[in-house]
Amino acid sequence: MPEVTPAKAVKQAQESGYTVVGDVQNLPLVKEGYTRLYHGTFSENLQSIKEQGLIMSGEGRPVLATINPQLVEGGSVYGDVQVVFDVPTTARVTQESGMGSGIVQFNKVSPEQIVGVFIEGKPKPPAVEPIEHRGTEPAGIAIADELGLRYDGIQEGIEELPSKMMFTDIYQTRSTFGANTLEKATERLSEMREAFAKHPAMSVVEYDRRYTLEELREMARQAGLSPSGSKKEIASRLIARGVT
Questions:
Q1: pLDDT band at 75 (very low <50, low <70, confident <90, very high)
Q2: How far, in Å, CA of 19 to CA of 117, rounded?
């Protein structure tokens, strides 16, 4: 078993918005009346799987899955990630000619049935260098170090909006948010990651392509966010709030 999960697979799996685990025991429990299955694939396919689910190939080949997770030690791994999904036990198809026992097939698995992504080994952040903070205030650096964020400095308040220390979640959502206490930063980080998981397809790049700077500023104002900064900075705030 590899000691470190390939950074590419972990990064793409996290960007897809799925729960990523290195131990299947860390996935949500299977509901009564359902069976958990594992489908090996490549991490670059995860974004389309997030949108469409698992579907038959263009040649009409069905979706194949195993009842048990594929392990490197067993020599049966296909791809670099395994999509984990739950189906009603009555929906299982156990007869797959020539594929052996323990392999089942489906014509389609909907996105709602997928519960996470299993990557053998413990997923680690793709970044290997220490975080270089951009701000210099000790209080902001302390909060950032506690939560594994980058501290970007203080954003001066405008009109009724107060000044805030700004942080960027560089390992997961790559979004920026403001907070002045550890408690508030922890709360905002949790909200941001939850919003990112629900709306993973809307990226900063897509905001940049879809909206002008003035449109993004107006969206920020309507969401109660600061309209200052570049398109990327405003888009990051909107993503963190779950605005699409």
A1: low
A2: 6
